[in-house]
Design brief:
Jelly Rolls, elongated, 1 helix, 197 residues, mainly beta, five-stranded antiparallel beta sheet
Length: 197
Amino acid sequence: MKKLLILLSLILVTAVTFAQERTVYLNNDKQLDLSSVKMVAYNGLTADRLIPTTRDTIDFVLRVVNPDAGAPMHFYANFTFDTIAGADTTIAITVQGKKFYSETYTDIIASALTSAVGAELQVSKTSLGTITEGTYVTASATDTFNADSTTTVAARSTTFTANTTLHYGYLKFRLILQGNDSVGTGIKIKRLEIQFF
């Protein structure tokens, strides 16, 4: 009997652990071709509510393809949150990306807290003006090939290294209900809109 109780406890803990997360695949899990579409929007469902006891984490995942492989993919995302019943706590939002399915996600925009959700609240996350497109490296050398061999001229070459975080194939917005200070019953995700530039 003791072994049965331990087994049932493990099953319950495992079920609760996996019940804490939900993944929403935007654009019906089809690749968004940025050559023809620059915006995607999603209206939240009842299942897209952050509730402390059953669903404290939701991932919104979007697959994208950029026909101009050399260009960075800047985004502007806007979330609309609201309370279910009563003011509630904050949400941590992290934006992540990866190039290929087999890779691990890395942070594009590190986790940051919203203000406490007491009524409808708009929160934006953007790479515009936040993430550099790359870095320029200037190397100098001495050029002695000229008419006056006693004069030297500094020769410069500049190379640009693209920021790979803006060349993703998968974009993920992770929302995590924070703290145990909630006084309401959870937070609605009413709408998510993402524009690409």
